[in-house]
Amino acid sequence: MKVGDMVYDTSISKYGVIIQVGIDWTDTNDVTYVWDYEVLYSDGRRAYADTIELFPAEDAERHILSKKEKLRNEEK
Asked: What is the DSSP pairing of strand 54-56 with strand 46-49?
């Protein structure tokens, strides 16, 4: 995925657009964290995300339906 791609974040169930790739962030304790992407979400918030959390937006509906079906099967 690249800057400008529309994505669906499975960890927070929101759509967004990738605004930066390859993020390094160092906290006040001098610990550095690395994320794959910075995403601007549909609610106007920005956050970091890793590849494992994101799907291309056009695949989101299929992912959501698959997740619901899996939950239904687990309930049986």
From this structure: unpaired
At residue 60 the predicted structure's pLDDT band, cuts being 50, 70 and 90, is: confident
Residue 5 structure tokens: 């791609």
**Distance of CA 24 to CAs 29, 33, 40, 46, 55, Å?**
14, 6, 17, 15, 22
Q: What is the token pair recorded at 42?
A: 């549909």
| Contact between residue 14 and residue 43 where contact means Cβ atoms under 8 Å apart | yes
Distance between CA atoms of 46 and 18, rounded to whole angstroms?
10
* pTM of this structure: 0.75
**29: amino acid identity, one letter:** N
How would you label 46-59 residue by residue, b for 16+ Cβ within 10 Å and e otherwise? eeebeeebbbeeee
Residue 5's CB is within 10 A of a number of other CB atoms, namely 15
How many CB atoms within 10 Å of residue 60?
A: 19
